[in-house]
Records
---
Amino acid sequence: MSDLFDEVALAYDQTWTQGWNGRGQRRRVWEYLSKLGTDLRVLEVACGTGEDALFMSELGWEVHATDSSERMIEQAKKKCASAKSVIFDRLDLMALDRTDISGKFDLVFSNFGGLNCLSARQLHDFKLFASEQLSPTGSLIFVLMPRRALLERWYNLLKRRPNSRVSEGVARVRLVDNEVETFYFDPDFIIQQFSDFQVQDVRALGFVPSYFSDPNSRKASLDPLWRGLDFLMRTLQVGPSRADHYLIHLKRPKKNV
Ligand SMILES: C[S@@+](CC[C@H](N)C(=O)[O-])C[C@H]1O[C@@H](n2cnc3c(N)ncnc32)[C@H](O)[C@@H]1O
């Protein structure tokens, strides 16, 4: 069965991964990951075109990378053809009962909004699944989109448009021919949902929504303005709930003995 994200798999790297905004935000994720240590076993969900799987394999980590989109996995496999410690699998986060993946991973990782495709209910099921996959000292690292991204809010106010991200926490986001439901989760909500984990870190990664910097969008003609605002907001350390994406690191608490 084809997946909604199949239709963006070919263009994804050009529109996000290779642009200034995608590169900048991903670089900040990599800076964080590279401090975590060596020899980790990672389960990556919603891996997309495999940019992070390749990076983590270069850190010497063993990576089990998954996505629901066959075309995304195809791109990822091409990119990681010479990487030794990566395997790929299809895994639909909305059909977790159908997977036979089971391992004691040091890290369950998802970058750039893969988990924003889940409703709060599905996120709860994912939490149970991820908890089962983790070793007793394992971590979760997610990169997510919050509800109140500041630049988008200003932009919508300027355009006098309602912002369903804020009012309902869900928006229908156009891919190419299809729309995908996108759910926005603030850091506080994630912390509450994963309350049996300890919060290690929550940080903003960047402030410019991906569709502002997409080279195919008219908004990209204002790139110098977006870059300037992004720099300013990072310098002022505007909080993660006002960012385009934020990183949250949750860790299993040490059990009392
Ligand atoms: C915005 S992309 C992020 C890709 C990648 N993590 C990155 O950092 O570039 C979102 C990804 O989530 C995947 N995805 C969406 N819904 C999914 C689901 N139900 N199960 C698994 N993956 C899903 C898409 O196929 C897509 O690859």
---
Amino acid sequence: MENFDYGIIGGGPAGYTVGMMLARQGKTVVLFEKDKMGGTCLNKGCIPTKSFLHASDVYSQMKNMSSYGIYADNITFDFSKIIDNKNQTVEKIRKSLELAVKNSGVKIIHAEACVKDKNTVIAKDEEYSVKNIILATGSKPKEIKGLEFDGEFILSSDDILNLEELPKSILIVGSGAIGVEWARILSNFGVEVTLTEMAEHLIPLADIEVSKRIERIFKQKKIKFFLNDSIEKIEGQNITLKSQNTITAEKILVAAGRIPVCPTCECESVLGDACGEIQLAHYAIHQAKAKALGIPFNKNLVPSVIYGEPEIAWVGLREQDTDETYKKSVLPITALGKAWCDNCTDGFIKLITKDDKIYGAHIVSKEASSLIHILLTAIQNNVKVSDIQKMCFAHPTYAEGVFDLLISL
Ligand SMILES: Cc1cc2nc3c(=O)[nH]c(=O)nc-3n(C[C@H](O)[C@H](O)[C@H](O)COP(=O)(O)OP(=O)(O)OC[C@H]3O[C@@H](n4cnc5c(N)ncnc54)[C@H](O)[C@@H]3O)c2cc1C
């Protein structure tokens, strides 16, 4: 029987990060992955969706370049090539990931693992003796009663990646990050998209003004949505909502959350989606870092990002979390020269401040996914508004919007 300091079950962001970091410290590590290295993030989540999103955004932009004097008539796309490109991107990343994991000294076992006892893991009928077990087994799409996945009509976020052709119409259940990103991808490609959301607003976890702005943008883009609503009845492709609105859709995508995959067993720790805490790849990665290197992170300041045009990003307190002692300030993106050059003027930067300190940041804008980190750095490190006012921001950038907003406080 082989002996290791650590046995890690799951080769997603949590598992491979903690594995590599422990191995680099001289620990002996064995990592078990039953499917593909990279986990949900690389194979079914973050990366494939962003590859599709990029293709669909470029396609959509190309159709709207005439104001720049660029005329691209009869633009078409080949969905099978878009899928090939996505697959190649995922494979390239997976190859370099596997190499990096192996080079760090982690032994990878491509097999389903189960825990026999707190010091023994079994995979492919072999026993591995380990001093510590870390579970990084991830999560899976949540099914809703009456909307069980069949892979044909009622799809999970895994199933939708297997489509070889785009449907003409789709109903998306749930308007969190996964629902909104798929709504954007499919709408850009010309699919008739309808969303249903049980909450009062789209993206229920976002600041209220962000939700309302996205609702406005979706209306402009002809993405239909129903709030405070859910499916009551399905007859063939005819769907009746609780509101009695009816929709005809070729497919239904259920994007109503994910449930942890976490075998009950004795183990040293559980990391990533399997914990059932914040189900984001960067949360998994930073939990792994905290475990392996003892470098903690502030779990109340985990940035959220929803991709597409425009990006949506936020961190810290939302307007609905605050009282009148907090000040809210909003800079429309139209104030920025760069936004006009890019023809991306719909959006805003919103800050929640109090006593010379920033408590929350909410951005709807191109580059929001990067911009949010400036504000995260300020919030987490108690950087004063008056200190940021002394900084020099480059022009023309989206980042100077942060300065413009703070100098006006
Ligand atoms: C459509 C979609 C888009 C997303 N986009 C983003 C995004 O843009 N940004 C972001 O931060 N997050 C995003 N996420 C979430 C992100 O993918 C997850 O938070 C992240 O993958 C969690 O990492 P993990 O290591 O905990 O689990 P996972 O990535 O799920 O990895 C777990 C691994 O464990 C393996 N495993 C499970 N049981 C066993 C076993 N018994 N033996 C061996 N192996 C086993 C699984 O095969 C899997 O590979 C997205 C998710 C989806 C579905």
